[in-house]
Amino acid sequence: MFSMLRNFPGRKIHAAPIWIVFRALACLAVFASGAFAQDAAPPPKPASTLLAQLLHEAEQNNPRIQAALHGWHAAQQVPTQVSTLPDPVFQLQQLNVGSPRPFAGYTTSDFAYIGLGFSQDLPWPGKLHLRGEIAKRDADAMQEQYESVRRSVLAEVKADYFRLAYLSKTLGLIQTDGLLLDELEAAADARYRSGAGTQQEVIAAQLEQTKLLRDVTMHHLDVDQAQARMKEALNRSQAAPGVVPDEISEAPLPYSFEDLVNAAKTHNPDIAGAEKIIDRHKAQVDLAKKDFYPDFNLQYAWQRTDPSQFPAYYMLTFGVRFPIYRTRRQQPELAQAQAALASSRSQYEAQTQQVAIELRNAYDIAQRAVSLLEIYRGGLLPQARASFQAGLAAYQNNRQDLQSSLMAFRDLLQLDQGYWQSLVDHETALARLEELTGLSLHQEGEAQ
Question: What CATH code is assigned to 38-85+125-293+327-437?
Answer without folding.
Answer: 1.20.1600.10
